[in-house]
Specification:
This protein has eleven helices and 20 strands. The protein is an alpha+beta fold.
């Protein structure tokens, strides 16, 4: 993804290069400048990625680089593709905690600075990147030092998706109440998932094999770990994905009094999406740490579950199809969560604490609503999923209230996907997906 970003705005890059050596016009007291007006925004919202050694392909923490990218930055924030918080944040579709979205005033400030030929202002040294809190202690899941190799093809030209098995060493059931992910090489790590797996559980292959047997077959290429474009690898059954991470995130705290159970017999599978920033011949390595905050008990047990009725049609009857060659092919599905989810967890009602709007590669728009006796309420809306970085929005927690799932309630998911000329049937639209039973659910905690 990062390598592709270099080619998104070639005209702007050429323009910036031509102007870079010219002196900016002097600023007066009414001029919007980098150091006095724009840098505070960049340091608060952008420099976590746009810094030396960060996952982003250019820096915004100094004037020279920021001026080079002024017009590109203004266009990206105006389109709300950067910072990569693509949920609608105007109050029309839920309220969400820890939003990275810029206010309209901040967007206008960056635009005014770029339009004024990006004046520097008075240099200062008091600005520091936003420093998220960290976990001082916890259970550490550490992946081996690994040199990723580009898998190639249209979906992974500069990428590798790799899974690693880590033994947590628990002697009794515990509950995850929060986590922190620290990549060893931030330039390589695009996103991280960590999921408890029961090795003796039946796999999703439908042939009676266990997860242990499937993983042993996948882990046969002489390198650490195994390929896993989806979840824990093709055919590995997974109940939950309680850890999801993308660049710029700090500590994730679950709602107070809640936690996700990890059985003493579980192992963890850590999936890492590597993006080879320096090209497919890169020899850079990474060892990533996932730190879990655990508790022996919690007031309420949370669950992370997944709805994907679109992909589930691969395994029951005729697979869903989308018309080929359309820039925005629509699909809508409804899950009667009130009928089956409450029975599954043995509860009369559930509070929804988060949503996980994830669509890989071809996703364009995404919207989820919950319908109950009072009508339809919007839980989350992503009007533009144009970049793969923003594709992973991870855990977005409701700030004002937690909608409840009761009997007869249902969740409606609407999304749009870009279809190539030769991508009509679902089974060929994105990737091969392992056979597995329907696992209808929402991210609920």
């Amino acid at each position: 993804m990062l390598r592709d970003l270099r080619y998104l705005t070639p005209a702007l890059l050429v323009l910036a290069s031509a102007c870079k050596d010219e002196e900016p016009p002097p600023a007066d007291e009414t001029t919007t400048t980098y150091w006095q007006h724009v840098a505070p925004i960049f340091f608060d919202k952008c420099v976590g990625c746009h810094t030396e050694g960060g996952i982003a392909p250019f820096r915004l923490d100094n004037y020279e680089d920021a001026r080079t990218w002024a017009q590109s930055s203004a266009a990206a924030v105006a389109a709300r593709t950067m910072p990569p918080w693509l949920l609608t944040s105007d109050g029309s579709c839920g309220e969400h905690r820890d939003s990275m979205a810029l206010s309209q005033e901040q967007i206008d400030t960056i635009a005014a600075w770029a339009d004024a030929d990006a004046p520097e202002g008075e240099p200062r040294d008091d600005l520091k990147p936003a420093s998220p809190p960290s976990l001082d202690a916890g259970l550490d899941l550490v992946t081996p030092e690994f040199v990723p190799k580009a898998e190639g093809g249209p979906l992974a030209a500069f990428d590798e998706y790799r899974c690693f098995l880590v033994e947590p060493g628990l002697d009794h059931d515990q509950f995850i109440t929060g986590y922190e992910v620290t990549p060893g090489n931030p330039q390589l790590v695009h996103h991280v998932l960590a999921m408890p797996v029961d090795l003796d559980a039946e796999s999703w292959l439908g042939d009676g094999s266990t997860n242990r047997e499937v993983i042993e077959k996948l882990d046969d290429d002489g390198r650490d770990g195994w390929p896993c474009f989806s979840a824990a690898g093709e055919g590995v059954s997974v109940e939950q994905q309680p850890v999801t991470w993308a660049p710029g995130m700090g500590v994730v705290d679950y709602p107070a009094g809640t936690g996700v159970r990890v059985r003493d017999t579980d192992v963890f599978v850590v999936q890492i999406h590597y993006n080879l920033h320096d090209g497919p011949d890169s020899t850079a390595s990474d060892s990533t740490q996932v730190r879990l905050r655990l508790a022996d008990s919690v007031e309420r047990e949370g669950v992370f579950l997944m709805i994907d009725n679109f992909l589930d049609t691969l395994f029951f009857g005729e697979p869903a199809s989308l018309p080929p060659g359309q820039p925005a092919a629509r699909y809508e599905s409804v899950s009667d969560v009130g009928d089956w989810l409450l029975a599954e967890v043995g509860a009369d009602s559930l509070e929804v604490h988060g949503i996980f709007p994830h669509m890989h590669e071809r996703g364009r728009k995404w919207r989820v609503t919950l319908t109950d006796d009072a009508g339809e309420q919007c839980l989350g809306d992503v009007p533009a999923l144009g970049l793969r970085l923003a594709d992973v929005l991870l855990l977005h927690r409701s700030a004002a209230h937690h909608p409840e799932v009761a009997p007869q309630d249902h969740v409606r998911v609407r999304h749009q996907r870009r279809q190539g000329a030769d991508h009509a049937r679902l089974g060929h639209a994105e990737r091969d997906v392992p056979g597995r039973p329907v696992r209808r659910a929402a991210e609920v905690s």
